[in-house]
Amino acid sequence: MNTINTADAVVRNISTAVEEVRKQNPLVGSWTNFVTINLVANAQLAVGGRAAMCFLPDEAEPLAFVSKSIYVNVGTLQPIACQSLPAAAKAAAEANKPWVLDPVAAGLGDTRTSVLKDLKQYKPTIIRGNASEIITLANLWGLETEIKGKVEGVDSTDTVREAASSALKLAEYTGGAVAVSGEIDLILNSEKAYYLTGGSEMLECITGAGCSLGGVMAVFAAVTDALTAALTASVFYKAASDKAVSGGKIGTFSFQTAFVDYLSLLTPSDIAEYSEKHLTLQECD
Ligand SMILES: Nc1ncnc2c1ncn2[C@@H]1O[C@H](COP(=O)(O)OP(=O)(O)OP(=O)(O)O)[C@@H](O)[C@H]1O
Ligand SMILES: Cc1ncsc1CCO
Ligand SMILES: [Mg+2]
């Protein structure tokens, strides 16, 4: 395992991504669940992006056309999502726009399984999920030989380290990045893997920390490569959540407010400094 220092390209890339998003204010089109849609949009705005949320299949192409990147989350599937989510992914892929997949509750029900299998062909630029979702998606996409991984509703019952080989298989298939979230995050592509420590466990006490993290990855994917985008958003979440609890005991909803505040307040150098302290490069076996 190697520690990172400010001279490393990865830290420079991360802080440049933060600067570029604040300069460019990229529009991100999202197809996401109605539990956390408001947090997703507000988190995207807080880091410097712009948000547009859609549901109808005929909006897939025009949304991909005007957006710099697309976010697809399968959290609360309605019957129409069987058409609109694959249409959104197809439109993003055909328009050469990066897109992020959040396979919420992968494995729960035949419809979700069928939608997730359908999305495989469009090779997401970034896949973001908790450990069980990542393991289950690798299973659904036929990349695992052994059936494992157990999503409990939208929660993980597996550890991030247990998801490492599934994450790598997914990244090898898509050619993009995969981010596994939890107490410690794992962010990798087929060549490099990073572990990220820090952050507050209060993120587990609000709904949509993971969904909005995926939405924020899509913001950064608009201005940089898949791995840097996934890393930048992940560092932002750990750093802003630490800041939100720095004043002492805080209730869950006030935490959410303070957390989004810090997403808007942290500077490129704050994020670079946090990366230097909390990121480690893991040699792939
Ligand atoms: N115990 C923890 N300590 C620190 N950070 C955490 C902890 N648990 C989760 N996080 C952070 O919370 C964010 C969301 O990760 P999580 O794994 O909870 O997503 P999720 O299960 O998909 O969430 P949701 O489905 O509620 O949107 C990530 O930034 C992750 O690093
Ligand atoms: C709680 C919940 N249920 C479906 S989606 C969602 C948001 C967190 O994944
Ligand atoms: Mg989730």
Structural notes for this entry:
The protein has 285 residues and is α/β, with parallel strands linked by helices. The chain has one domain (2-282): Ribokinase (UDP-N-acetylmuramoyl-L-alanine:D-glutamate ligase, 3-Layer(aba) Sandwich). The protein is built from eleven helices and twelve strands. The protein has helices spanning 9-24, 37-47, 60-66, 81-94, 110-119, 131-140, 164-174, 209-221, 226-244, 252-265, 268-278; strands spanning 2-3, 27-31, 50-53, 69-73, 99-102, 126-130, 151-152, 155-156, 177-181, 185-188, 193-196, 279-282. Strands 1-12-11-10-9-6-5-4-2-3 form a ten-stranded mixed beta sheet, with helices on both faces. A two-stranded antiparallel sheet has the order 7-8. α4 links the parallel β4 (69-73) and β5 (99-102). The longest helix has 19 residues, at 226-244. It is globular, with a radius of gyration of 17 Å. The structure holds adenosine-5'-triphosphate, 2-(4-methyl-thiazol-5-yl)-ethanol and magnesium ion. 2-(4-methyl-thiazol-5-yl)-ethanol is lined by residues 33, 35-36, 75-76, 104, 154, 207-208, 210-211.
